[in-house]
Amino acid sequence: MAKESITVNRYVADTSSEFKKANQNPIFDYDDSPLVSIEEALKSTTDIVSNIIEYVARAKNQCNDQSNLLTHDEAAALYLYSLQSPVYRCLNEALRTEDRNAIKPWFAFLKLLMTAFEKLPSITGTVWRAIDFDDSLTFVDDEAHIWWSVNSCSKTLDICKPLLGDGGTLYAIEVINGKDISEFAANTEEQEVVLMPGSRVRRKGESMDLSGHIIIHLEEVRSQTETQFKSRYLFEIVKQNYLHNSRIERLINPAKSFSIEQSYINLAIVTSQEQYKRERELRSAVYSDSVLNSYEEIYGVKCPIDIQNIFQSCEKEKKQVLIFGRAGIGKSTFCRYITNQWAKGAYWSQYELLALIPLRHLTTDRYPPLTSGQNYSLIDLIKKEVFSFELSEKEERLLREQYDVNKTLWILDGYDELISNVPSHLEELLEKLYNTPNHIITSRPYLNTLSYRVQMEITGFSDDNIAQYIEQFFYQMKDELDDAIIKSQTLTKFLKSNLSIWGVAHIPVNLELICSLCSNQDWSTTERLSITALYNMITQWLCRRYLKTSNDRFLQLSDDELYQRCKSELTFLQNLAFTAMKDNTIIIRPTLLKKALKEANIVNQDHPHILNIGILKSFVKEGVGTQIEMNKEYYFVHLSFQEYFAARYLTHILKESRVDEVVEFIHDHKYNQRYTLVFAFIAGLLSENYETTSLNIFWDHILRESLDLVGLRHMEIVIICLGETSSDSNFTRRRELLTFVAKKE
């Protein structure tokens, strides 16, 4: 038989996305195809592969047809698979794509190919596969990963290693069900072994370094029941997706990420009853500046319960829990954490399916009204939100057969982000979600129109968690910062010695921002840090990073010069944030982007990178930098950033003497808890910028006669806004307000 040169694509994946996409898409639908000749099997690919007829003829003529193991057509299929030709490349592209229709022309050939693989005896031993990137973060635990594609390996390292060049990853895999196709391959010297679709592999040992290459030792593991596994593979895919998405990207630097296990660090949950007890204790306290800190510390009381036991207080028939959490406290992280734990088998194995639904996704653009006049079903929601690919007709039928409402746990994240703007045609779907017997729903503690017997609250990092998080954050930067360990220790000591900043740091998103800032500047002279000051500093840092891409001299600009240089970009973000809040929307669509640009008098051609400043995140999977950026949907990297920039918009128009607009906003929304953080940011921005006239206007209308009968909400908004004002002498009314609050107490 003639020898073929080594086929790079079979043994080496060029990119991370190529490898992951190929192994996330199952290919069981070919099972229903009839077993036909190789000529018939590839007839439907003539428009995909040029000269396919010639390649088939060559395979039939040169394959090993003398073996009793395979038919002539099956042997030809193996030869063609291993032949350096467009066949493998086109087949591989079809296996990788999320468009399930792309693989259909290959079903008959896959049936022939898989039949040949299955007839071959299974072998054990070590085989090698290469990946042209650092894949050390994929196998950071001992969980099994499912590879759904056909993965070619070699018995000899000499085949894979030369293909990597100077870097990359080598997998040393101990197989138990490998298919040795050397006898039938186009090049027998490659000693090719195939891992079948659905192979489960897990890490067996720590990674090693070999001449600049990372070696990861894996082992193939057998499913407990192969037949049951194949019939339930849809739910296995969901678990694998949750396990693959187990890293939390940093807000400011998405290139850096933490394992969900490290990022979560025991966020405490307490019952509402315990929370209300602490609030009553606060009301009896003597008022002073320290009471402002105590007000924050209510939400820092650490009385944790084990997350996997949160259903213990529920009725036997229904497991429904409402979980509150303030801005940045870690509600979405909590949701991702429990999906990861379920996928690992650590939590709630009684549920066959766990469906994570970000409620902000329930928009008209994503779920347009159905032309038939029908309503969306829960199955429709699972198809779109839980699976990363489009289900085939067969898979959808299988999902409908296997879905059991009593064995499904729904995780509904972000009730507060949806409830003010529910599309009318999705109201029935939302009601179906609320009526599911098993679900967890998260929300900020306002706009709650739901009645739940079991309510809990996420309260943020404990003191120990803060130290652990800082240590992990700077450990990850040890290769970039020579003094990373020293910075870690210095920051921890600094936070503990500053009560105001220590209180702010118990909120996870704030601590990440503090660590990000500390890695770039000296905080030794900082004595007080409000939430507003923190977001101001982050905005300045992002602006400097944004400008640095064009000229290093911008790093020397003063803060005022920096704001002036980025005036257009900041005006755009301010207009965008306020308009989105006014429209009750989290997802920012292209029409809203263009409207904000127009209102800010910005021509996109003059600011081509305006979306890349670091505040907005693309809703599509590919991220910023792909497709036409203005045609994508976006959202602020965190809702608190949208609230911060909305506050900047209001302070800006207040300084422009558009007082009536701001007064109307205060009057309409002062007691709406959805805008609490906006008002806090306004108070902080006006105070930090020494805007005495505007600050007095703001406080005059905040302090106007209370509209709520008891006055608790009025007092709450006063305390929160006062907490953001500077204690410097420039704000002469501070003492007056402290006295006012003390009398009310």
What does this structure look like?
The structure is a single chain. The protein is of the alpha/beta class. Helices cover 43% and strands 13% of the residues. Helix 10 packs across helix 14, helix 26 packs across helix 28 and helix 27 runs parallel beside helix 29. The longest helix has 18 residues. The N terminus is likely disordered. Keywords: Glycosyltransferase, NAD, NADP, Nucleotidyltransferase, Transferase. It is an enzyme of class 2 (transferase). Belongs to the Arg-specific ADP-ribosyltransferase family. It comes from Adineta steineri.
CATH class of the largest domain: Alpha Beta
> What percentage of amino acids are in beta strands?
5-15%
Give the N-terminus to C-terminus distance in angstroms.
93 Å
Count of strand segments: 19
Rg of Cα set: 30 Å
Q: Please tell me the CATH architecture of the largest domain by its name.
A: Alpha-Beta Complex
Largest sheet: number of strands, sense, barrel closure: 9 strands, mixed
What's the overall geometry? Answer: elongated
List low-confidence stretches.
Answer: 1-8, 282-302, 621-627
Q: Summarize model confidence as the mean pLDDT.
A: 81
Helix content class: 40-55%
Count of separate structural domains: 4
The CATH fourth-level homologous superfamily of the largest domain: Toxin ADP-ribosyltransferase, Chain A, domain 1
The third-level CATH topology of the largest domain is: Toxin ADP-ribosyltransferase, Chain A, domain 1
Structure classification: alpha/beta
Number of helical regions: 31
